[in-house]
Amino acid sequence: MGLFDLFKKKSPEELFFEAVKAGDAMETVKLGEELLRQRPNDLSILNPYIDALIRLGKKEDAVKLLLSFAEERIKEDYYDVAIPILKRILKIDPLNLKAIKLLANTYKKKELFYEAFNTLVESYRRFKESGIRADSIKELIEDFIKEQFHPLFYERYADLLMEEKDTENALVNYVLAANLYLKLGNYKSALRTLLKAEQIRKNESLDRQVVEALAHIDDPKLIKDLLPPLLQNYKNNEEFLKFVVSVFSEADRLPLLKQIVKELQAPKVKYTLLALINFELGEVEEAQEYLEKLKLVDRDLYEKIAATVKSKYQEVLEGIEFPEEVEELPEPEQVLEVLEQVLDLNDIVSEYVEKIGEEEKPSEIKQEIETLKTFEKDGRKALSTAEALLGLGKFDEAIEAAKAALNTENAFKATALIAEAMIGKGELTDALSFLLEVIKNSSLTPEEKARLKVLIGDIHKIKGELNKALMWYREAQKVLNDPEVQEKIEEIEGSEQAV
User: Fold this and answer.
1) Alpha-carbon distance 323 to 303, whole Å?
2) Is the Cβ–Cβ distance between 309 and 275 less than 8 Å?
3) Within 10 A of 285 (CB to CB), how many other CB atoms are there?
């Protein structure tokens, strides 16, 4: 070092960094303040200046400066600079609402939706742990979910509600999440969410969705564990059992279902399902054998299933006669209703909630949100919400949600949902008036009109007006040629009340 260098005057920057190195907070703040007036965007000055302010106990000044800096960077679209600054603010002041909002919004601008949502959820928990009302954060979460409309956000919000013992709202959000997972084809996550919902409340609508998820999951052990006790719960519900067969048939998984059903101990469920499965597979002789065994166990159920079979599989059954007796009777212990399979699935459900599925990768969420946004344009978003609410028996909310889809390409589905909700409320006359008005709509296809006629027939049937019901079913069947509608016709025709 030359003599000149010894007497050279040091620059403000040199003096500043010497103060930083020496740990002189007072001097660092004094020099840094002047430098930042000249170079407000210089992070090499800002960061040690902030550290010095904090050491001096001036956290509010530090936060205020950082917020100002972050807002400027956001205006300039320098999101990658703003994000670490905002995260630093939250380390200094974890409950700073402005920083929370800015960070979540900045993540959204970068389409980092998972990170944005996580910011809000973590902030909510911090507020609650600090004993501070978190209503403002909760509103931000709810607005975020409605805007981004991804099932993972609904599911995690439901988890949050469960922590607060708000089971009713948690249930709604779990079911909404499950509906969306199913629509995205993410069946394992759908099942996980449905099982969470069923820990709160069980109903047939949820169980049907569980079946749908199971039918598409590539995990035979999981299906074998969860499906049998579920089937046992519906041993007296032939419509549910027919639904199970139809869903597994659509998923091309009937051989697996057959294998599982053969191991069931309850004869009524076993014979019913094996008869339906084998008819669906075209294995008529084996199907006949199980149908005859069912006759010995439950004659009423046999007649209902036989009517379905004759209606649905007419071509398969042509020229085939059912045997008068079966050669091999079921074992006596099989004929008795087994009690070993308890109806409560809670133990199994609790075990699998933790095991099933992993949360979606953040990189996949962006793409799925883009897919889900198309649902808003064509009404599927409103319908998904309406379906979930209808399944929970929240009829008024379901009607309001479905109304949002009446002016979209899915108007027919919205109409049917509204009518079903009205029927669920017991407002049969209003439902009839609504359907009779809608059916005049010229934009409906002949099949859509026919489906609405079936609904009209259903309402008349519920009201005990069998002749009117029969008339509407027959009108619908001219277009549909649907085995299930034919069953309804034959049921009324065979009724003594029908004239």
Assistant:
1) 15
2) yes
3) 9
pTM of the model: 0.83
Structure tokens that stand for 44 in this block: 């090499």
Cβ distance 36 to 45 under 8 Å?
yes
Please report, for residues 134, 245, 266, 272, 329, the alpha-carbon distance to residue 277 in angstroms, rounded to integers and kept in the order given: 53, 6, 16, 9, 20
Could you write out the DSSP letters of every residue in 302-315?
Answer: HHHHHHHHHHH-HH
Here the tokens at position 207 are 């169980």
Q: How many CB atoms lie within 10 A of CB 390?
A: 23
- Pinpoint the alpha helices (H) of 149-186: 151-163, 167-184
Nearest in space to 196 (alpha carbons), one of 342, 344, 352: 352
Residue 165 half-sphere exposure toward CB, CA atoms < 13 A: 0
How far are the Cα atoms of 37, 52, 186 from residue 46, in angstroms, in the given order? 11, 10, 46
Query: Closest Cα to residue 469, out of 449, 455, 479, 482?
Result: 455
Quote the CA–CA distance of 417 and 379 in Å, as a whole number: 13
| Angstrom distance (rounded) from CA 273 to CA 381 | 34
Name the token pair of 372.
Answer: 């889900």
Angle of CA points 150, 155, 159, to nearest 5°: 150
Backbone angles phi, psi at 147, to 5 degrees: -75, -45
b/e code 413-448 from CB counts within 10 Å (16+ = b): bbbbbbbbbbbeeebbeebbebbeebbeeeebeeeb
Interval 357-402: pLDDT, tens = 556 667 778 888 888 888 888 888 899 999 999 999 999 999 999 9
329: left (phi over 0), alpha (psi -120 to 50) or beta: beta
Amino acid making up residue 426: G
> For the chain, what is the largest distance between any 2 Cα atoms, rounded to a whole number of angstroms?
122
SS3 at position 439: coil
Measured in degrees and rounded to the nearest 5, phi and psi for residue 252 equal 60, 40
pLDDT tens digits for range 230-274: 999 898 899 999 999 999 999 999 999 999 999 998 899 999 999
Where do we find the tokens 């079946």?
211
Contacts of 36 (CB under 8 A, 6+ apart): 42, 45, 46, 49
CA-CA distance, 410 to 51, in Å (whole number)? Answer: 58
Distance CA 10, CA 456 (A): 91
Measure the CA–CA gap between 405 and 95, rounded to whole angstroms.
Answer: 40
